[in-house]
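sry for the spam today, last one i promise. struct tokens for design, 158 residues
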């Protein structure tokens, strides 16, 4: 494992623990040359999963793309990186549990938004505005009204 700081190809495992509900192993490593500590994840290599984009193109499923989108939408919000990674884990598990070789970006986006709306409403709106490609203020306002309605319903239940 190459050190991300000095690129030395030697590290020792400092700590190892299960991650993603036992489907991965999280390892803390320390570079034997410079002492830099970094984290790696070991996962079972799953069968390739193709994502069908809106224009019909197909590409391999990428956790990183979901992660980058969530990081952008949660920028300057009180959302921990661990929470974002949990959403990515949940979405990937949900998509893979479908047992399909192909899944649409639409379905992936819907799964992401299901988790994100409960985590941070502003991050949700940011993600939804890009994902749903709000064409005008009316569509944006409708989405905001649905969130306010859900908040009011949740307040009445408490």
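last one done:
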């Amino acid at each position: 494992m190459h050190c991300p700081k000095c690129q030395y190809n030697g590290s020792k495992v400092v700590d190892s623990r299960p991650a993603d509900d036992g489907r991965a192993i999280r390892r803390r490593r320390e570079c034997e040359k410079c002492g830099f500590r970094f984290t790696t994840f070991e996962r079972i290599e799953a069968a390739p999963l193709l994502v069908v984009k809106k224009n019909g193109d197909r590409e391999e499923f990428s956790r990183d793309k979901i992660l980058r989108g969530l990081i952008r939408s949660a920028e300057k919000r009180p959302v921990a990186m661990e929470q974002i990674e949990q959403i990515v884990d949940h979405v990937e598990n949900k998509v893979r549990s479908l047992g399909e070789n192909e899944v649409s970006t639409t379905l992936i986006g819907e799964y992401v938004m299901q988790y994100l709306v409960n985590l941070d409403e502003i991050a949700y709106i940011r993600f939804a505005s890009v994902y749903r490609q709000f064409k005008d203020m009316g569509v944006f306002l409708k989405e905001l009204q649905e969130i306010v309605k859900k908040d009011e319903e949740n307040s009445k239940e408490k």
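The chain has a mean pLDDT of 88. ok im logging off now
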